[in-house]
Amino acid sequence: MCKCPYQLPVCFGGLDPLPAGKWFVPEEERHDSAVKRNRKALTTELKLWEDYLEKVAAGSYLVGAFSLADVIVFPNIAYAFRFALSVGCYPKLAKYYSLLKDRPSIKGSWPPHWLASPQGFDILKDL
After folding, report:
1. Would the CA dihedral through 95, 18, 126, 51 be positive or negative?
2. Neighbouring C-beta atoms of residue 71, cutoff 10 Å
3. For 75-115, how does the pLDDT look when each residue is reduced to its tens digit (9 = 90+)?
4. How far apart are CA 77 and CA 93, in angstroms?
5. DSSP bridge partners of 64
6. Which of 98, 109, 118, 124 has its CA 20 to 30 A from that of 86?
7. CB neighbours (10 Å) of residue 3?
């Protein structure tokens, strides 16, 4: 578990049908217990982030002004919402995501296939 507010290790590894799970997790480790373990670890991490953002001023970036902390964390947050993370369950993360996704620097670096198809797999919808 990461307690540093500048890094979010998104534990997608054993979650099928995410392609990364098939690429990076050995065949013998792709089983229900790995999926359950990874979902639990990710849920714990997301709750830590939700709690951290509760302490940050509304409409603020991670450490006040937009900084390298936001640049490092945002891709993981974007992946989570692309894979259907619940806005209702994680409202602070959703607000933070919305704050950053419309920045010109982020819009300019958005993967082209994300523009064409904004929703990826829905593997995080139940977290």
Report:
1. negative
2. 15
3. 888 888 888 888 999 999 999 999 998 899 888 888 887 77
4. 8
5. 61
6. 109
7. 8
